[in-house]
Structures are given as structure tokens and as C-alpha cells.
Amino acid sequence: MLRSLLFVTLLLGFSLAGVSEVSAKQVSNVQERTEMSFGTILVDPNGDMITLSPSGSISAQGSSIISGAFTAGEFRAQGDKYAAVSISFSAGDILTGPGSTMALGSFTHNAGAAPAFDNTGKIQFNVGATLTINAPQYDGLYSGTYTIFIDYP
Amino acid sequence: MRTLKKLGLLGIAAASMSVGAQAAHAASQTGNASAVIQNPIVITEDTAMDFATIIADQAGDTVTLTAAGSISASGSSTFSGSPAAGAFSVTGTPSAAVTLSFSTGDTLTGPGTAMPLGNFTNDAGGSPAFDGSGNLAFNVGADLTVNATQTAGSYSGTYTVTVDYQ
């Protein structure tokens, strides 16, 4: 009877270890905390390439002038504490509006070269991208989506 | 007891299998992005308005330079040299309609009394608009009022052309 109880305890122990391991390998609760915005762009009539950095700074390759509230995207996710993760992005995204669609790409993040969950199993980072402005580009509001992928490497 | 030990091993194996099957769940999330586009209006003066040389009517005169570049006088003034209408090129929102307007109270100054410059005209038509590439070009004419016994010499000044979206 004693041995029997010992075995049950042993089995339970392994089961718990298994459950614990399962949850540790999941990335969960990925949230977009802030939407990416390029603000208001007084466009270079010849077209331009606008770069929004994860830190929130913005610049134009050409003569476009950016005003208004521009901001980098911000994301949070949960997973196994200390676990390394890979962050990747979709390709071929566009912003649509009154005129030609504008290509959104070359995504960057500020989670560092070796992103990982912290000691509470959380990771938070900002996302920047480049926006390609056509010549001509009609006035108006343009919007679109992109996808962020968080995975264990 | 032998049976129990076998069951124990089975349990361990099952737990290990569940670990292998459930490993590494990635996640993805949609992010939103937006931008507001505005085409700034940029005006460039390509040609400065020039009334050239006016042999002035000593009684004073009103000299009219048309947007097409022809010059005439209401009095007896005569002209020489190469008068030129002002020429401007503008960039803005493709196909957008605009209004053109001009400053008032401008003068040309020089050796003598200042000469009023006004009554600006343009050849952008009744409904000026940017073309499909966001370009608009037009010429500007004006009236120059020559005072009686206007002192000879070179007179110059500025005026302001304003282009705005309707």
C-alpha cells in the first residue's frame, strides 16, 4: 500500500511537470498596445520613402515633411520566462486610401538582436516600418494592417 | 508489485509524449498602420514680370501688361526692350481645383515716385486646377501706373500670388 501511494505521487509529479512544460512553450496574449501612425505627410511630389523607427522618430528620404502625431507600433506578449523568441513580420502589406496603395514594409523592432521574455514571462517592444509614397499620391487618410509573428526559435 | 512498476513506466512515457506534442506554440497578431497624405502647394516664379523700357507719357499713364506678354498704354507711352509676363509653376494635389489671388497695394520703387502695380490678371482660366500629375503653370500680367513726369531710371518691386485649394 505504501509503495502504491509512492507510485501515485511519482506519476502525479511527472504529470505536473508535463503541464508546466506545455504552458512554457506557448506564446500567448499578444496585444497591439499602440497602432503605428505615420502622422500627416506633406508629400514630396516626386514620391518618397518614409521611415518610422521603433523609437518613434520619422524621416523622409526625399523632401516630404511630416507633422502631426506619428508613433511606432507597440506590442506585448507573454510566454516562458527567459525564453528566447523570434519576431518576424508579414510581407507585401499596403495602406489603402483615396489614391494608389502605398507599400508598407521593412519592419523593424527594438526588442534587440536576441529578444527574450523577461523574468515575468513578458516581452514588450515597438515596431517601425517604411512607407513608400507614390508620385503622385492623392490626399487623404490611408490605412492598412500587417501581421507580427512571435515564435520560439 | 511488478505490474505497478510497469504502469509507472507507462505513466512517465505518456507524460513525455504530451510534452513533445504540445511544444512551441507561436502566436501572431494583426497590427494597424495609418498615414494622412497632404500634397503641399509649392509655387515657383519661373519668370519675373518685366515692363521693359517705357518711354513715358509726361502726363502720366497706365501701362497694361497682359498674361500673354503683350504691352499697351492707355496714354501715349511707347515701349522698347522685351516685356515679359510673370510666369509661375505650382505643384499640389493632382486634379484639385484651386483659387488664384494677388496682393494689393504693391508698388515699384526707384529714383522717382513709387509706381502702383495692380489689377493682376492670369491665364489659368476660369476654373484653375492641378493636372493629373499635380502641376499647374500660369502667367501673370498687371497694370503699372506711371506718374506724371516720372523720373527716369530702373524701378522694381514685388507682389504676392496666392494659390489655395478651393
What kind of oligomer do you see?
heterodimer
- Please provide the ordered H/E string of secondary-structure elements of chain A: HEEEEEEEEEEE
Which regions of chain B have little confidence, pLDDT < 50, spanning 5+ residues? 1-22
Average pLDDT number of chain A:
86
Give a description of the structure.
The complex is a heterodimer of chains A (153) and B (166). In chain A, a hairpin with a 5-residue loop joins strand 3 and strand 4. In chain A, the strands form three sheets. In chain A, strands 1, 3, 4, 6, 8, 9 and 10 form a seven-stranded antiparallel sheet that branches. The longest helix of chain A has 23 residues, at 2-24. Chain A has one helix spanning 2-24, and strands at 28-34, 36-42, 48-52, 58-60, 65-71, 73-78, 86-89, 93-95, 102-109, 122-133, 140-151. Chain A has one domain (27-151). Chain A has one helix and eleven strands. Chain A is α+β, with helices and mostly antiparallel strands and 153 residues long. With 166 residues, chain B is mainly beta. Chain B has a single domain (42-165), classed as Immunoglobulin-like (Sandwich), CATH 2.60.40. Chain B is 12% helix and 43% strand. Chain B starts with a helix and ends with a strand. The model of chain B is unreliable at 1-22 (pLDDT under 50). Chains A and B meet through helix 1, strand 1, strand 2, strand 6 and strand 10 of A and helix 1 and strand 1 of B.
